[in-house]
Amino acid sequence: MLQKPRGTRDFLPDEMESRREVESTMRKVSATWGYREICTPEFEELDLFTVRSGEGIIQEMYVFEDKGGRKLALRPELTAPVLRMYVNEGKTLPKPLRWYYFADCFRYERPQKGRYRQFWQFGVELIGADTPFAEAEVIMLAHEILSSCDISFTLHVGHLSFMRILLKELDPADQKRARMFLDKRDTAGLEEYLSSRDQSSLSERLISLAGCRNLEEVFSITGDFPERGRIEELFTILDQSGIHYTLNPGIARGLDYYTGMVFEAFAENLGAENQVLGGGTYRLAHLFGGEDTPSCGFAIGFDRIMVARGEKPAEVGKSVGVACTGEGRSWALHVARKFREAGIRTLFDLTGKSIGQQLSGISRFAVYAVIIGSREQETRTVTLKDLHSGVQKTLSLQDALSEVCGDDTR
């Protein structure tokens, strides 16, 4: 028997309904902030990803040649494709551009809980705005989206200027190693490594910086620098917004990618792989042939959100099953169409068995049963049965619609 490829999943209807419900919520929240959906190809030129990340990323990607010998890759993430699209299609559009996307990505890595070779991302990009308010808007939107997903999470906000100021004392190779220890929160490894480079005092300052939880403490370690006013304004806006966040100047990941503000979110019940969101400010458009353009965005690991939510069935709304005799079929078809036009999930029994047997099958998936025989056909009525309470009524079609919908549909 053929199996699905390693690192991929099949989704049955219950799970798909839950996923679509969360996806729809994310879309609705983004739309209320003025963000509009975009879509990019599933595969891109390989150079799109190696121009920024280097050839080493090829080992983590699905790469292939097409029949014309062109090197292509299934997208491992979506920010680069979005900025490529901006350069190709959107650079003349009025700024700022508020875009969001929901799509699957592909990475060749070891599958584990919350990490797959095919996975989905929901993301936002704000392109062409370079102010503290623009950065704050993206953080606030991320917070609202995660809050709408019914998960418990913590939001950490930092700024890479803090780390860059201290790390500039090291050469590039030592900076990279120090960032690795900081990213893994390996303070012992950091102390040992920097001691071997006669930089013990720097390791103390870096560790102290990572532990700061207010800007006053941060600036007492970093000293004053040109971006201080902008950073203070950003955090003032966040405080005024009323969202809950933690200042985390120890965020070191993405120093080669992000240019300033960075933020991350962590779900509380995912174990070690608990990061569900990452984002910040960046400038990528010039790498793809465009002008240097300020941008800010984030990506949400949709699959981890679903794991963090746990088993929560989707709200499927009212549902009706239609049971009929042969004599009542033509009226039953009309009734079913009217229920569907009212937005009610309506399924026809397909077995042709007795009414009792049809009702037994309908009770497995519906809240109400609509029963139609020759009498209902003649009188243009329906027999409506509440399958939870067992109460059964003979009603006009319009009254039956009102009963199921819970309001007056006339």
Explain how this protein is built:
The protein has 410 residues and is an alpha+beta fold. The chain has two domains: 13-309, Bira Bifunctional Protein, Domain 2 (BirA Bifunctional Protein, domain 2, 2-Layer Sandwich); 319-405, 3-Layer(aba) Sandwich (Rossmann fold), CATH 3.40.50. 40% of the residues lie in helices and 22% in strands. It is built from 15 helices and 16 strands. The chain has helices spanning 13-32, 47-53, 79-90, 132-148, 160-167, 172-183, 187-195, 200-210, 215-222, 228-241, 302-309, 329-341, 355-362, 374-379, 397-405, and strands at 36-37, 43-45, 63-65, 71-74, 97-106, 118-127, 153-159, 246-247, 258-267, 275-282, 295-301, 319-324, 345-348, 368-372, 381-386, 392-396. The strands form three sheets. It has an eight-stranded mixed β-sheet with strand order 1-5-6-11-10-9-7-8. The protein has a five-stranded mixed β-sheet with strand order 13-12-14-15-16, with helices on both faces. Helix 1 (13-32) packs antiparallel against helix 4, helix 4 (132-148) packs parallel to helix 10 (228-241) and helix 5 (160-167) runs antiparallel to helix 8.
